[in-house]
Amino acid sequence: MKTVNIALLKAQLSQFLQFVKKGEEVIIYDRNQIVAKIVPHTGETNSIKTIDPTEKVSSFLKKWPKILIEREVDVLSALQEERGDR
C-alpha cells in the first residue's frame, strides 16, 4: 500500500496509477487526514456508471429556487463593501 498527499498525487498521477495497475492500493491524504483510496479495478463492469458532469450540475441547479433581482446590482461594489479592508 502506498500513501500520498494530494499535491504529490496531482504531480505524479501516472506513476501512482501504475502502482494501482500492479495491484497496490493508494491512500490519499489531505492535511494528514485520509480522504480517499484508489484500489485496483476488479474487472466488474456492471458497477461502473458514467456520470455526465453537465447533467449533474443542471439537475442540481434545478433544485434551487429562481431568484429574481428587482434592481440592478453592482457586484464589484457589493463585494468591496462586504470585504471591507481585507
Parts with pLDDT < 50 across at least 5 consecutive residues: none
- What is the arithmetic mean of pLDDT? 84
Assembly level: single chain
Tally of helical runs: 4
| Structure classification | alpha+beta
Biggest β-sheet: strands ordered side by side in the sheet: 1-2-3
| Helix content estimate | 25-40%
Largest sheet: 3 strands, mixed
User: Cα distance, first to last residue?
Assistant: 44 Å
- Which term fits the overall shape? elongated
Radius of gyration: 22 Å
Number of strands: 3
Strand content: 15-25%
Please sum up the structure shown.
The protein has 86 residues and is α+β, with helices and mostly antiparallel strands.
Written description of the protein model:
It contains four helices and three strands; from the N terminus they run E-H-H-E-E-H-H. With 86 residues, the chain is of the alpha+beta class. The protein has a three-stranded mixed β-sheet.
Offer a few descriptive terms.
86 residues; alpha+beta; three-stranded mixed β-sheet; elongated
